[in-house]
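Standup notes
- HV: blocked on the assembly model, inputs below
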Amino acid sequence: MSRIAETFARLKTSGPMAFMPFITAGDPDLSVTGRTITELAKQGVDLIEIGFPYSDPIADGPVIQASYNRALQAKLQVGDILKAIAALPTATLPPLVAMVSYAIIFRHGGRKFAEAAAKAGFAGMIVPDLPTEEATDLSAVCRELGLDLIQLIAPTTTPERTRRILETATGFIYCISVAGTTGARTELPAELQQQLRWLKSQTQVPLAVGFGISRPEQVAALRGLADGIIVGSALVRKLAAITEEGVPVEQALATAGAFAAEMVQATRAS
Amino acid sequence: MPAATTPAPASANVPDAEGRFGEFGRRFVPETLMHALEELTAEYERASKDPGFGAELNDLLKNYVGRPNPLYFAKRLTEHCGGAQIYLKREDLNHTGAHKINNALGQALLTLRMGKKRVIAETGAGQHGVATATACAHFGLPCVVYMGEEDIRRQKLNVFIMRTMGAEVRPVTSGSRTLRDAINEAMRDWMASVADTHYIIGSVVGPHPFPRIVRDFQSVIGREARQQSLEHFGKLPAEVVACVGGGSNAAGMFYPFVEDTGVKLTGIEPGGRGDKPGEHACTLSYGVKGVLHGSYSYVLQDIDGQTQDVHSVSAGLDYPGVGPEHSYWKDTGRVQYVPVRDEEALAAYGMLARTEGILPALESSHAIAHVLKTAGQRKPDEQIVVCLSGRGDKDVYEVARVLGQEI
């Protein structure tokens, strides 16, 4: 069983949902990224997504775009991220999942990139612009390396496409809550609950909901429907404050930690 | 470059059902857009088999755009060069002043067929934005055009025209604030609006089926030019030349000639100020195979796959990617891609104005510049056909600024 599957299996027996925060690697620098990962682990998060900055992220809203730009302007390279992750005690941390655009993976070579990610200590990868039709080769490589290649399902995904996607799904399914880009929203669409219910009837693979989630109340609304909650922009914004508002690193880490604690609490409450 | 085997000759029978031009093309987009792309592919298949659709488009091209436009013999330019006879395919005479209207009207008709209520588009030089705003005004569709702030500065006239046509021009302030970022923003809009909005992409780029649809709608250029060549000089030209940014006028011009192997096809890339990264936008001459904007093609990117900044004096060519069919033509050897620098394009802009009384767009000036350099090497009984993709009125402020003159 993969580390991601183990995480969800453990939660299933004890009841709560998984809280799965996303942060951008290298914003403002990789030392802060490492410290954030440690802080999030301390607050009891269940899995951490690490965004690899990309120059043209079409699935991302302004907050994550800006964080990617800051990291790239500071000359961050993929090799630096892998090195920084490898330096962390990943075996004792929650599973780390790399969020990487296919442009980056293709340039490095699918196998080479996946091997490097596995070696650095990642438990899985999400490739937001690699639809299932194009994922066959990378999926096989990931399986061989024990990495979960996380599949995404959108509100616009037809039942027929969903069945095809589910055939190769491992780890968890990333359910995009709303048609659009990443970024906090006040309300989740009404159709989401219906789609999650239907998905539950189609697969045993855990369902994690992302895009637009930033508040504990939204977690409550998904209880019983989703196995995990992904929060990106809301957390990335707290770290952006270091560069954008001159907030001291210690203070930003404390704010991020407190937010994570609140969200963990919300996923635990019954 | 290791070339152990000779590549198979280029076929006109591309792309396949998965959108492959040889190895290039395909779809690398978020799952959110996949259904819309499948839907568009199916609708386009139906439309291309529907005689009513073809008839409606042809009627618009004739009575609204003013096609066929002339294949014009540039006598004084030919004399100046002292070699091959130079013919200009006058896309600049189309309604809205460029080839972009051919595609915008075709895709607007597809929008109506799909029952979508709103149109979005990206634009670099503003010609595609103007064409889309025009098509939307014609059909009464609401239209939003994304345009980089830097391009808004360079192409004020087109911004004014788009707004006059009732379109909303949304400035894009991210990244390099040019065409590449405008495409990013249009795609982000489409992620959220895909249920009721069609994205009229302006070049032969993006995920399948866009490269095919845009090429097909632009192929009217090459079909007419081929027919007009036979009428004017009783044979096919020795060479066909077109400028390549994303590559839509070149794709439309070259495609009907692809299997005429006696015709040399030359694509002109924006050589900018030099051959170092950031100084040019020569994706095919200096790029690598990679993924950008949903398709696999040549790209100007660094060792991590991050898109590089590019430069061209021409806003319409200032793009770090290129249509996948051009990558296929490059690798099969069917088309030669050659850089032309900013200063050469600027000189050609003035030269065509003085010798022929025709003001070419800065984009098309790149193609003219190449012909100025090479026509003299050909015999007087050979013909070169150049795609004059657009007119140059939009560029007068930028040319004056670069030349240090005042208007």
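- HV (later): unblocked. Chain A touches chain B at residues 54-61, 65, 69, 72, 77-78, 101-108, 128-131, 133-134, 152-158, 161, 165, 176, 178-181 (CB under 8 Å). The longest helix of chain A spans residues 249-268.
- Next: hand off to the docking folks.
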